[in-house]
# Entry
Amino acid sequence: MSEALDPAILDFFADLPQQGPGRDSETALVLGRIRDRLPANAAVADFGCGTGRATLVLARELPDATITALDLSEAFCRRLSAEVTRRGLAHRVHVRQGDMAAPPVAHGSLDLLWCESAAYVIGLTEALERWRLLLKPGGVAVVSECTWLAGERPADVAEFWAAAYPAMGSREDNIARAASAGYDVVDTHTLPVGAWDDYYGPIAKAMAEGRAAHLGSAFEAELHREQAIFTAGRGSYGYVFYIVKPRQNL
# Structure
């Protein structure tokens, strides 16, 4: 999803079930790989939470955790707040509107920092550098990042991403970036292609129903092009989860 902050565009995305590629089962799978690292009553933050697809999975899978869900969009926070209230989770899921580049979270306060498909807004290295001090000793960060999966890629795909996200790197590049930001990489996991379909499918349905018409033909064309690029480039890029922990000798 574009990081454009036009309120009408954000309202369009707020009505979708998710604001980036992802899937509940994948969030739960990755969380399961680090669950034994987390203490009871863990302090968790979900940065760039959107309308809370991943937040709500974290709340379900960690029933004794306290979760701060942070997003810059008022529309996203409003929708998530309503859902948190509806599910009776307001006592432990706290939705806050704010900038994940300068999060309203105390240093050394988090056992788990989670961020799916949003760190690119800051840049992976800078995001990890900013967030490292937020973690407690032994704390873990999980960040999913759009990543080149193959050295060879179609020319139109390479051209698209050179403009959309020129800093996009390979898995090896991103592991090196995490290391330069002061982390050891515990594990990685690539999001399956179907999880992208879970994101693009509702967008296509919304456009077919005319729910994006008021945003103009250029906006709809941009969404169509992004989906076409993904279809053309399947296998050459995808989201990869990076499970990282701060190096203790820093």
Q: What stands out?
A: The first strand starts at residue 43 and ends at 47. The CA atoms of residues 24 and 154 lie 30 Å apart. The chain has one domain: 7-246.
